[in-house]
């Protein structure tokens, strides 16, 4: 089994955080709640034939995956606790190890 580690990409993570409209400290449950709210709002089935909402939905899914991966990597590396808030400050993101 191979495990790939990488340092956090602040620009990518910060863009995802801003798209889902989060402050610099957020829990995984808050991320999931915001994702489901936005997914419901932009779901292609609600806007049939709209390529604009389809593109927005893809951006939301990508942002969600980026943030969840970052939080899960932090949780594993820091032996986190349930309902922990994760920092999206530049220094914290750049110094974190991301497990891929």
How would you describe the overall organization of this protein?
The radius of gyration is 15 Å and the shape is elongated. The chain is of the alpha+beta class. It has four helices and four strands; from the N terminus they run βαβααβαβ. The protein has helices at 10-19, 28-42, 51-78, 90-94, and strands at residues 5-7, 25-27, 85-87, 97-99. The model has no long low-confidence stretch (mean pLDDT 82). It has a two-stranded antiparallel ribbon. A two-stranded antiparallel ribbon has the order 2-3. α1 packs across α3 (51-78) and α2 packs antiparallel against α3 (51-78). The termini are close together. The chain has a single domain, classed as DnaJ domain (Helix Hairpins, Orthogonal Bundle), CATH 1.10.287.110.
Task: Write a brief caption for the model.
With 100 residues, the protein is α+β, with helices and mostly antiparallel strands. It has four helices and four strands; from the N terminus they run βαβααβαβ. The longest helix has 28 residues, at 51-78.
Task: Provide the fold topology.
Blueprint: E1 5-7, H1 10-19, E2 25-27, H2 28-42, H3 51-78, E3 85-87, H4 90-94, E4 97-99
Helix pairs in contact: 1-3, 2-3
Distance from first to last alpha carbon:
12 Å
Give helix and strand order, one letter per element, not per position.
EHEHHEHE
Number of helices: 4
Shape: elongated
Gyration radius from CA atoms, angstroms = 15 Å
> Which CATH first-tier class would you pick?
Mainly Alpha
Strand order across the biggest sheet?
Answer: 1-4
* Percent of residues in β-strands: 5-15%
